[in-house]
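INFO  loader      accepted 1 record
INFO  loader      residues=345
INFO  predictor   begin
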Amino acid sequence: MNARQSDGQVLLWVAVMLVVLLLFAGLAVDVGAGLSVRREMQNAADAGALAGAYELCYGNPGQAEAAARNMALRNGAEVPVDVLVDGNIVRVEAGVGANASLLGLLGVNEYDVRAKAAAACERSRSACALWPIAFPVSVWENTPCDTHIYVWDDPKILGVNCEEWQCEVEGADESDKFVTPGDRGWLDFRGIFEADVPGTCGSRGGAALIKALIEDGCAGKVLIPQCIPGEPGTISATEKPIKARIGDQVYIPLFESVGCDGGGYWVTDFGCAEVIDYHKNVHIYVTDPETGKTAPYIKPGTSSAAKFSLIEIKISCDNCDAACAAPSGNPAGEYGDVVGVGLIE
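INFO  predictor   done
INFO  writer      dumping tokens
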């Protein structure tokens, strides 16, 4: 082989290697561009799924599919956007055609980039701005929406068993409920808030903290299920902060049992309610199970009817969205639940 032939072979190999290098460079460029487009499509799919789940939770469930599709398109996806509404879950697959650059030399001018996401509307596993008063889960689940609940808030003792004596609140409707001291408790949130949302209550404690939680909604993020310390008694001077919240929607911790960690409340759910009023000097009517006679409760050893203080709330007929809400994996009920929307895939 002479020198001229050798030089020719070298040039041929150089040309081949240049083509290979160009193809690898084109592949690197196109892969990088494809990954960027993939991130955009993931954002579009996420946004679409969240928009659909939000519609399930707080809007019109019949519009969930359209809301998901429209949001994905607004975020850069191209038609078709695949949407599946499966119960409380919205699944979205979004895609777009990505242009190839140097890979066009191989006849690949465009390729599809697609991404999937799923979001759910579920009972929330966390909430902020909770009210510091807890009710049994059974009270919430067995009570129709729009029912007014009168909550005991008086240091005086009611000396009868209301399940036997059919206790009723003066001026209340027959369908309204009366929650006795044993069926509600004030909660002590100190040390309970999550570090990422510690709340704005400051260093207040005891009754001062309870009042701030009622009036200012300063509670930080609370995760459930967990045991929250509390007392079944009464807190003085709650009338003013409660009256300041009349007409507001509040978030109520709901417990399954009492006694964890020596007297705490095992909170497993949250409920939505509207604050109606704070009542003072109210008679409680009781019905004697033996005679069937109904009369105002009279404390033993006295001759006049006793009067009590009560908090009046109403169970919401819609589910509600609290700050810090996040899906728990448990489907929401038809009303009165704190719900959260979030990505699950």
